[in-house]
Structures are given as structure tokens and as C-alpha cells.
């Protein structure tokens, strides 16, 4: 798949399902979009028949507890965007209008695989404009207790090194090192499902979360075993899902990253925080543009030179 040019979908595609936290039915339509449109959510069904456009940007994030939320409750918000954003980033889709008539992206089977299947069913096409990247120039790091996330320079690709460490024998300590590319994303990352602990269910319900969670869309971890009768899709499905989430959250940079992302016991909050740290100083990054053709991974630069692109900042 050539990555010199920006891409969009060949045709609209519709998905329906419930929100994992709200439990409400929602309809989502992915529409093709023109060059430099980026990923934008069109929130419909608001009071008085209003609609609202929300850029899929770290500047629009308003909550990171259990999921990533953009927009605000009063004027319109969309929650649990990370699996869809991960699928778009993982497959190299740059421009799409996401029309959604509810407060939360449908959870479907708890992974990004249904979004991948829907996108591939209609296909991806070039829009002819050069693809731009955010090249990380200096390491940025955020910490919270023992947990941390950081972005380091990497001129050739977007690489992730994700490590989790749960005091639970079913999960324990797992690590996934991965370089983003459409084929490997589909195979290694997209099918990893969200997970939760049975001991937390009642607390989450009382707090108004996980109202749509079930064994159909969540890996449920009991005291000494996975509750789902089919078991795990990967032996290390838990860290693969954390990698999937990180890809989706970091897509909120607005352009694909040339960087190495490293995290230990991270999550939505630290993923958002490391983007804030990156964009806090213009010296941390530059925007570069593809200058030639090359087959390869999603974020590979061509054999030629990546020229700085003097376009408006993406953040």
C-alpha cells in the first residue's frame, strides 16, 4: 500500500451497535472526505435537532476515565472513540467524516476488527494530496507514580513499545513491541478486545459505566480465570489491546507520527498527556511531507528526503 498520498474511503459505510458504557443503541456512518479534512465527528441527534462538528484532536479531549471523550456534554460529545480511531490510523485512512447519532461509538465486539472489516469492505483510495507527518525531534515523557508514557525520535516509522503489569496471575506482566503497518495491524492488533475485572463490575454500574458491557464485547477476568467461554484470541491479548488503544489515542495528534512510543502501565490519561507534552513546545516536533514513493509500513518515509511542510500546526 503506497503511503505517499493522503487517503479516504471509496464509499460510505454504516455500523450500528450499543455503547459499552451507555448501553444505548447508536448508528455510525463513515463518509469519504477530501484532502486535508482529517478525521472529524459529526454529532447528530442533539437537543432541538442540532448537529455539532468535533475534530478528532487532542485539543478536543474532555475526559480520559475508562475511555477517551471528545467534545463536551453541554454542546455535544462523543465517547469511546479509541477503537475506531485505532482502526483508521492502523489502516492508514487520513480523511473521513464520522457521522454518529449518539453519545458513544458502538463497542461492537470490543476490538477494532469490525471497523477494519467495514473499512476494507468499501476500500481505501488516494485523494492525491501529499501525506504529512509529525516527526518527533525531542523525547517527551509524562509520569504518574510508577506509570509513564513517552515519545522518542524515530525518523523512519511509528513504533510502539507497550508494557503492562497487573497484580493478577491471569494478566501479570506483558510487553508488546510493534511497528505500525496495515497488514500487521490487521493481523496482530485489531482483534484484541477490551477487558475488565469482574470484581469491578458493580462499582462501575453504580458510577454509570459499563452499562452495555457483556461477554460479547469484553474479556471478563475473574479471580483465577478468563470468564469468556471462548477464552482469549491471543495469549497476550491484554497488552495487544492496550497497544490498540494507544494507537487510537495517539491518532489524536492529527497527523501520523514518526516516533517511538514507550509506555509502562499507561492508559488513556497518559496517552493524552504525552500528546499535550509533545505539543507544549514547537521545538519538540516538526511537520514533514512525503517526497517520493515507497512500499512499506504505514509511517515509513521514502528513500528520498522528508521536507518540512510549512502548513498550519495540527494542534
UniProtKB/TrEMBL annotation:
Belongs to the LpxC family. This is UDP-3-O-acyl-N-acetylglucosamine deacetylase. InterPro entries: Ribosomal_Su5_D2-typ_SF (IPR020568), UDP-acyl_GlcNac_deAcase (IPR004463), UDP-acyl_GlcNac_deAcase_C (IPR011334), UDP-acyl_N-AcGlcN_deAcase_N (IPR015870). The active site is at 268 (proton donor). Zn(2+) binds at residues 83, 241, 245. Pathway: Glycolipid biosynthesis; lipid IV(A) biosynthesis; lipid IV(A) from (3R)-3-hydroxytetradecanoyl-[acyl-carrier-protein] and UDP-N-acetyl-alpha-D-glucosamine: step 2/6. One of its GO terms (biological process) is lipid A biosynthetic process. It catalyses: a UDP-3-O-[(3R)-3-hydroxyacyl]-N-acetyl-alpha-D-glucosamine + H2O = a UDP-3-O-[(3R)-3-hydroxyacyl]-alpha-D-glucosamine + acetate. It is an enzyme of class 3 (hydrolase). Its cofactor is Zn(2+). GO terms for cellular component: membrane. Keywords: Hydrolase, Lipid A biosynthesis, Lipid biosynthesis, Lipid metabolism, Metal-binding, Zinc. It comes from the Bacteria. Signal peptide: none annotated. SUPFAM superfamilies: Ribosomal protein S5 domain 2-like. The gene is lpxC. One of its GO terms (molecular function) is UDP-3-O-acyl-N-acetylglucosamine deacetylase activity. Catalyzes the hydrolysis of UDP-3-O-myristoyl-N-acetylglucosamine to form UDP-3-O-myristoylglucosamine and acetate, the committed step in lipid A biosynthesis. Its EC number is 3.5.1.108. The keyword Metal-binding applies.
Amino acid at each position: 500500500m503506497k503511503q505517499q498520498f493522503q487517503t479516504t474511503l471509496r464509499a460510505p459505510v454504516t455500523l450500528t451497535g450499543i455503547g459499552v458504557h451507555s448501553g444505548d443503541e447508536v448508528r455510525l456512518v463513515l463518509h469519504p472526505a477530501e484532502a486535508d479534512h482529517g478525521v472529524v465527528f459529526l454529532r447528530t441527534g442533539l437537543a432541538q435537532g442540532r448537529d455539532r462538528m468535533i475534530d478528532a484532536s487532542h485539543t478536543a479531549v474532555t475526559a480520559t476515565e475508562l475511555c477517551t471523550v471528545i467534545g463536551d456534554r453541554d454542546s455535544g460529545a462523543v465517547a469511546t472513540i479509541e477503537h475506531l480511531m485505532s482502526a483508521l490510523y492502523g489502516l492508514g485512512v487520513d480523511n473521513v467524516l464520522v457521522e454518529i447519532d449518539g453519545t458513544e461509538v458502538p463497542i461492537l465486539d470490543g476490538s477494532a476488527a469490525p471497523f477494519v472489516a467495514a473499512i476494507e469492505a468499501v476500500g481505501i483510495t488516494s485523494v492525491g494530496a501529499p501525506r504529512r507527518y509529525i516527526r518527533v525531534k525531542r523525547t517527551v515523557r509524562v509520569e504518574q507514580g510508577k506509570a509513564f508514557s513517552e515519545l522518542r525520535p524515530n525518523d523512519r516509522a511509528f513504533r510502539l513499545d507497550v508494557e503492562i503489569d497487573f497484580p493478577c496471575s491471569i494478566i501479570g506482566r506483558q510487553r508488546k513491541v510493534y511497528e505500525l503497518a496495515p497488514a500487521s495491524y490487521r493481523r496482530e492488533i485489531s482483534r484484541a478486545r477490551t477487558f475488565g475485572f469482574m470484581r469491578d463490575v458493580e462499582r462501575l454500574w453504580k458510577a454509570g459505566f459499563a452499562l452495555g458491557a457483556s461477554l460479547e464485547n469484553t474479556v471478563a477476568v475473574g479471580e483465577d480465570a478468563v470468564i469468556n467461554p471462548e477464552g482469549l484470541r491471543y495469549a497476550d491479548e491484554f497488552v495487544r489491546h492496550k497497544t490498540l488503544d494507544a494507537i487510537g489515542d495517539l491518532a489524536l495528534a492529527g497527523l501520523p507520527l514518526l516516533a517511538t512510543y514507550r509506555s509502562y502501565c499507561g492508559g488513556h490519561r497518559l496517552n493524552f498527556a504525552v500528546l499535550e507534552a509533545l505539543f507544549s513546545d514547537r521545538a519538540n516536533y516538526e511537520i514533514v511531507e512525503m517526497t517520493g514513493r515507497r512500499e512499506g509500513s504505514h509511517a515509513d518515509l521514502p528513500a528520498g528526503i522528508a521536507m518540512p511542510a510549512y502548513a498550519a500546526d495540527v494542534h
